[in-house]
Amino acid sequence: MQQVRTGNLTMNRLRGRVKAWLSKPANIILLVFLVTLTALTLYPLLSMLVETVTIHTGREARASKLAAGTLSLYHFERLFATSENQYSWIQFYEPFLNTLLVSLSSSVIAILFGGVVAFLVTRTNLKYKKFVSAVFTFPYIMPAWTLALFWETFFKNVNIGLKTSNGIMASVFGVYAPEWFVYGAFPIALVLGLHYAPFAYILIGGILRNMDANLEEAATILKTSRPRIIWKITLPIVKPAMLSTFLLVFASSMSAYSVPVFLGSPVRYYVLSTKMKSLMDSYPGQAYIIVGVMILFGVGILLLNQKVTNSRKQFTTVTGKSGQISKINLGKANRPVAILLVIILLMVAVVPLVTFALESVIIKAGDYSLSNMTLDFWIGTALDKRLDQGDSTGILLNPKVWNALIFSLSLAVTCAIVAGTCGILVGYGVAKRRGSRLASWVNSLSFFPYLMPALAFGAIYLAMSSQIPWLRGFLLLALVGSVKYLPFASRSGVNAMLQLSGEIEEAAVITGVPWWKRMVRVIFPIQKSSFLSGYLLPMVSCMRELSLFVLLVPTSNTILTTMLMQYSEKGWAQFGNAINLLIIIVVLLVNFTVNKLTGASIDKGVGG
Amino acid sequence: MPEIILNNVAKRFGKFVAVDNLNLHIESNSFITLLGPSGCGKTTTLRMIAGLETPTEGSISIDDKVVFDADRGINLPPNKRDVGFLFQNYALWPHMTVYQNIAFGLENLKWKKQDIRDRVSELLKMLRIEPFEKRYPAELSGGQQQRVAIARTLAPGPKVLFMDEPLSNLDAKLRMEMRTELKRLHRDTDSTFVYVTHDQLEAMTLSTNVCIMENGVLQQFAPPLVMYNNPANLFVADFMGNPTMNFIDGHLGVDGRLTFGGMTAMFGHSGEYLGERDVVVGIRPEYIHVGEGDLKATVYSTLPSGMETTVKLDVKGTSLTAVVFGDLDYAVDSEVSFSFHKAAVLFDKADGKNIAKGQLLSPAMGG
To answer: Which of A604, B30, B92, B216 is the most buried (most CB within 10 A)?
Structure first.
């Protein structure tokens, strides 16, 4: 009797505890995300790992002399330890070293450029600050290939690369740039570095801006010279942000695909991502091993990043009366520095757009006279009668282009809504159950897609979709996009939620406001701009995404970016440039409209 | 010996006037408090003297050396002014250990390694933070961080020490303790202290002279007890003292008879004839003695604290606050008698200025 009652009691208590646990929305959210994210990230990862030990039909089966479907370590042996014809060196080790070189240099460039500008904008009386901080994030908002394409169109000439035609530099100024300058490691690192410099600018600038000015003033009072203050106080305090930036840029550069394709492939300069793409068709097993290596690198970087940001010397955010910081007077150097900066920014952010505009209206390549210009590629009709290539109408009259634009936009909006909303929910759950194991799992899982190279992510989902018949077209693209961009949204969601004190929600709980109403009426309005940034980032990224979707689109005319890719492969330069410009304009328009309407922006927190 | 002189110092941010036409003479070895509500310009004043802020007008000299003069274009940077500064949020460098924080200023002065070692050890011992030498600021409690900040400021032995609300981030008990230590420190270090606070009790207990400001304008500069007993105007009277002074609207007759709050009294004072006018009568709560005298009031509420009891009285609709010493309590709504003792201050009703300090003689009900 006694025993039965105790048994019942424990059962009752257990049931009570489960019920209490489930009555908290945060727990349900975390549980749901744990299951879905495991299915959407770990499952593809596992299936990819299986691919690395599976012999596929076609070339793999023929070369290995094994039956298709056999499990074997053949791919590893082939990729890592084949000395014949320097196979391993060409297929893996050289691209690997190239990747390291390019990623390292681009990180250094990004930090130097972004960090110096962040310092100038936040800590000195630099002129034209407003312009600098407004234009500086342009390269990040624009697709990465923009700069790469610009670099190529600007400097290419008949002596190097594909030796097809002369760019502006050669045809207008008669300067023939050497090959190392136009293609290969140098321009790839430079372009990636410039593209990710806004990263450094935003992260380092944010710290510099929020950094307690008293820390520097305390040193001034103790008779410290300006250089010594920068060296001993300011730099060490922004060091964690610099390291974070370094690791993030490194990871992003490593998985970048479009830049090395445009600036590397013409001279057979390969990095891991481009090598993987070229292996994917014939030797998918080896390609997936490369993906694995890249993911390993990414995870390593993430762990390092966590270690860096969790050190003893943590930056405390107690702020005092820092509004009154005295800015460094640049004196006579002010104007030259400011003008130099403006010129660089114009070169990086504005000139490319002008170039694309120019290239989209000239009839014969290399001739920039007015008589050689036409708007036909934008608004012309019956072009096929006069041209031997391309579509019959200008892009703005072409229903294909409009369909792709509408598809791209609806895809971007869908991904933004799904990823953004999930990001807020993940943020809510993680912040509410901070410190619990469940929360940290979900937190890591939601960040995991960031580490997967976009191209590989697409490839994995392609493999997965072949087993699920209804998962294709728009649905497939929207799913991939939402999962891939979740990290952006969940980052800003978690940060925004961590800033909110629990009392704010508890005040609403006390008066009996239901959960969804608390979210919509209390929590969302308070952190509106952070949350909206969480929607904006996926949207902008999705609009300009190429590598993630390139393997998954039903036809290349489906979305604008793949259309652009197709046009430039076919060599329809004017149409390509016109579409490129169209994409950039749409992305910038979306960004600025959202920014003006809601105050949310990618560069939130930094400004002149 | 360093004295600090401010002449017609003003600071404007655009149209906003933070500090207006400020004249101060801070004597050597004094402990000056800049007191006022937030936004009154006290921190700006301190930062201007330290050189962290540039005044719009006027001149400042420290120890007979002109450190700022708007007309002559002199503006010495903070590191040339030989001063120490203690920040409200301590501003400890998060990436340096306690030892490195304290030693940093000495390294700048190119001290010898051993001398630095000795001086830091001396300070660690003096402020009782020896065990934390190798810790980072994030690993210390608020009170310990405070001590490290003080040690860092004192390390080079500045003759002038500026402190910007250094105790406001501490809990009540620790604040009490640090007050005692600061006062002791002032004696031991032989330097001039300039201290910013919005806490009148801190200003009362610590300083040799209080400078009280409102909206950027100096209201009174005097020793704390002088300020307490003879405030220059209603603002100062209201700001100093807790519970605050009683203010009762009244009328002073031609014969010197005062009518206020349903009472009358003769106003006796040694100054010149005041004439007939509307006034505000200011009476400190501890000068109202409950339980004696001819005046009658009803007890509205009581706040006994053990050592003293604050009693709110209702005199025919006028409310008076009295402080009774000892562990007494009164029944609410009961009738009590009371009388006025010692001084009362008369303020001009129109401009709030102190017009006279005197006695309320033979007070009576009615009027």
So the answer is: B92
Nearest C-alpha of chain A: how many angstroms from B7? 23
Q: Which residues of A touch B111 (CB under 8 A)?
A: none
Task: Report chain A's mean pLDDT, rounded to a whole number.
Answer: 82
Q: How far is CA B96 from CA A539, A606, B123, in A?
A: 42, 27, 17
DSSP H helices, B138-209, are: 142-154, 172-189, 200-206
Count Cβ atoms within 10 A of the Cβ of residue B155 and give its class: 0-12 exposed, 13-18 middle, 19 or more buried.
buried
Residue A588 is assigned to a structural domain of this protein: yes
Residue A604 included in any domain: yes
Instruction: Give the DSSP letter of residue A40.
Output: I
**Does pLDDT of B163 surpass 80?**
yes
**A54-63: pLDDT as tens digits:** 888 888 888 8
List of residues 6+ apart from A478 with CB closer than 8 A: A411, A414, A415, A418
Q: Which residues of B touch A228 (CB under 8 A)?
A: 108
Q: Do B93 and A233 touch (CB under 8 A)?
A: yes
Contacts of A221 in chain B (CB under 8 A): 50, 52, 78-79, 83-85, 153
Substitution target from A210, A211, A222, A229 for chain B, most B beta carbons within 10 A: A222
Percent of the residues in chain A that have a pLDDT greater than 70, as a whole number: 92
Neighbours of B332 (CB within 10 A): 11
Task: Give me the residue from A217, A223, A314 closest to B105, CB to CB.
Answer: A223
How much of chain B is in helix, strand and coil states, percent to nearest 5? 25, 40, 35
Contact flag A218-B85 (C-beta cutoff 8 Å): yes
CATH number, domain containing residue A449: 1.10.3720.10
Residues 80-109 of B with CB under 8 A from A: 83-85, 87-89, 91, 93-95, 104-105, 108-109
Confidence of residue B209 (pLDDT cuts 50, 70, 90): very high
Confidence label for A447 from pLDDT (cuts 50, 70 and 90): confident
Domain that holds residue A604: 24-43+395-608
Report whether the peptide linkage leading into residue B243 is cis, meaning its omega lies within 30 degrees of zero.
yes
Q: How large is the average pLDDT for residues A99-115?
A: 94
Report how far residue B350's alpha carbon sits from residue B347's, in angstroms, rounded to the nearest whole number: 9
Q: Are strands B277-283 and B246-252 parallel, antiparallel or unpaired?
A: antiparallel
Separation CA A356–CA A352 (nearest Å): 6
Nearest CB to A321 within list B83, B88, B108: B88
Q: Which residues of B touch A218 (CB under 8 A)?
A: 85, 87, 91, 93, 152
- Asked if B138 lies within 8 A of A312 by C-beta distance, the reply is yes
pLDDT at position A315, please? 47
3-state secondary structure of B306: coil
Q: Is A191 within a domain?
A: no
Q: Which of A137, A116, A139, A135 is nearest to A126 (CA)?
A: A116
- Residue-level pLDDT at B35: 94
Residue A466 has pLDDT above 80, yes or no: no
Q: Per CB distance under 8 Å, which residues of A are interface residues toward B?
A: 212, 214-215, 217-225, 228, 232-233, 236-237, 239, 312-316, 318-321, 324, 326
Question: Into how many domains does chain A fold?
Answer: 1
Reported as a single tens digit per residue, the pLDDT across A194-208 is 998 988 888 888 778
| Chain A CB within 8 Å of residue B77 CB | yes
- The minimum CA-CA distance between B102 and chain A, rounded to whole Å, is 10
Confidence of residue A600 (pLDDT cuts 50, 70, 90): low
Instruction: Name the residue with tokens 């800003």.
Output: A492
Q: Cβ separation of A215 and B43 shorter than 8 Å? A: no
The verdict on residue A174 lying in a domain is no
Cα–Cα distance, B259 to B271 (Å, whole number): 20
Are A355 and A154 in contact, with CB atoms under 8 Å apart?
yes
Q: Which two tokens stand for residue B77?
A: 């940077």
